[in-house]
Design goal:
Chain lengths: 502, 332
Amino acid sequence: MKKLIIARKFSQILFLGLFVYIVWSTTYPLNSIISPKVLFKLDPLIMFFTAISVRQCIEGIVLSILVAIFALIFGRYFCGWICPVGTSVDIAAMVNKRNLILSDGLNNNVKKPKYYILFIVSFLAILGFQAAWILDPIVIFARFLSLSFIPGATFVIDKTFIFAIKNFELYGGFYDFYRSLNDNLLGIKIQFFVNSGISLSIFLAIVLIPIIIPRLWCRTLCPLGALFGIFSKISVFKRAVEKCTDCKNCYNICRMQAINKDLSYIKSECVLCMDCVYSCPTKGTSFKFDYKNKLVNTGKGKGTISRRDFLFLLLISLPSLGFSNKNDKKFSYKAIEVIRPPGVKNEELFLKTCVRCGNCMKVCITNGLQPTLLKSGVEGLWTPQLVPEIGYCEYNCTLCGEVCPTKAIPELRSAQKKKEKLGLAIIDESICFPHSQNKQCIVCEEHCPISDKAIKLKNKITAEGEMIMLPYVDKDLCVGCGICQNKCPARPGRAIKVKGKL
Amino acid sequence: MESELKMNNLLYKLETYLKRTVSRREFMKIIIGGLVYFLSENQFLKFAFAKNSDAKPRAKKSIACEHDLVAVKGSKSGKNVEKAIELLGGIDKFVKKGDVVLVKPNMAWDRSPEQAANTDPEVVATIVELCYKAGAKRVNIFDVPCNDDRRVYENSGIQKAAEEKGAKVYFADHWNVLKAKFPYKSAMEDWPIIRDAVVCDTFINVPVLKHHGLTGLTLSMKNLMGVCSGTRGFIHIDIAKKLVDLTDFINPDLTIIDATRVLTKNGPSGGNLKDVIKLDTVIASTDPTLADTYACKLMKKDPMSVPYLKEAAARKFGNSNLEKSDIKELSI
């Protein structure tokens, strides 16, 4: 019985399932058992470096400190037992049973880049620029689920049902079943996200490349793994080999290649997958608590970076200083192109705090929050923006603030949120039906959610003697929710457009 | 003789053409050509997704009622509805045993019942209860809201109230539509209409009386916009003709206008409680034009100032003459 391996696999599947469940239930009534914020509050990389870059203690950072303390005892347990990306990588690697083993020298170099990345991230955080999100596995996985996997899966299921219902005319009980399925599981609206293909390809690259070289992502690039690797330097839960016949089974089976060819053990690479324990023919391998460094055959291989590497890193991270240039005019120009979610006041602070997890986009009730690619600069990659033509900001809804793990989007009460200005609607009189073609329309005025109407009407008498109503925007009342742009019947360009606040 | 020869000649040519050996290149041409035709015409998709997608107008039921229109005033809206339907001749006249009934309230806005942007939940619940009493097989309730469906259904209070009485309240599926085909020329031709609105035995229209920026008042005809899919903003352009056509297409069997709370300003969404007045009235009629005209009178508004009522009067659609109709008013 491989008890420990079964326990590990159970834990991996459990946490993967939990992860998918939490992201899946990040939708309108928000009645999941676990808050969607918790996922990211567990992640020390995100929480620590966001806190450092904004110089503020973030609510819930205790959870990530707890995870880090466990890492001080158990090393990289998170990578092997919890991390959903690690689990996906392991599942994908089941296709190929034969490990491609790198030479010790190459292996030593392959494991370095993650420390470089971690170093750059911490360097930028100290300078006040948050870059932890770029390669954080939790964020990448959550974004993949929110932007690509869940919309894609629901789309396929929904279209299959629609095909069956329409083709075989199943308008009876089957249709009711479809409706209840939509209400409870799939969501009544299939979400769509621009650039979702990119988040899908990033995830596929992470998961599929390790089919050839197992856990390549975790060994090479993952900055969260690097952080846990550094913590594991002083961890006390270690691998102990009591009786060795030099069979090299553990060397061949280790997915992280944490065992060198001379069978020395690199603690900072070990994810405690427990494979070596059961592959040992003498059953002499085990994991034990070792407080006084008594165990032999451990920690011989190099884990973290050398002094030369450190100096090299210092040199290459100097150009990144350019990112934090606050007086860049381009910066502020780019920021106004996009409409940020309600409550975001300071674009710079928003870019620092936002971890690009995609929670707000997943939860957005109208699907209006979409990821930006380069529209707000490189710094704004994957940040949310409101695209009114896809969906508007629902007047009474405060969901995006409720799910933001780092409060980049502040959590506002309904009454407060209604006063938040996202932008300003501007009417293009050359397209607007009443202005340009003397046709009655005022769809925008009808939909305006503000009780005193931010879109007001003035009467005009046309040459034919008909009275028509012309809409105009009251700049003080308009909050820029974008429902007018969303519902405007003018095509292809809408006659009323919301511009981000200046 | 000569023509016969020509014919034979032609047949012979055809036969040789069909029996010729097809070269590989020619074969590929035929296959590719066929594929291009198949895909360009989207035959498969048409077959799969466009089955029976045309709809004829709903048949007009001739229901002889005791009055043309009934208006009941009272403090409880549920009681008002019961009394109004009873005075019209009872619900049995409209709902037969085993019928599938569609109750179409106005639930378009993410507002609470007090803000009067949506139909009073109690009115809807009472109608559902009456329908089931009359032996309806199933009572459907849906609307195509302007705000998000889930928030609207919940905050309007209609979903909860109607489901308690056993109605099926569901979200309208925009793929499940039929194209409206009119016997006359109409701007609404081919407009997608939610299927359940057309294939039901009884259609009960339950609008709320409120202000509207474009038409002055939102009434039963305007409420029927809620069964339309597509980009509904286009209906606003030349709204009068389109709404009368739509009403003619849907032919609601019974119109019950809820004037319990009335939004008098900043409609149709409202949101300010100061704009709401209480009229505590329910209007019931089989004729949507008559019901709307009476509602205008209730709001002290000239019916001819409402564009679609003007259009209806001009086309002699329904009865827009209040003086010549049998109207029963009651206060309880």
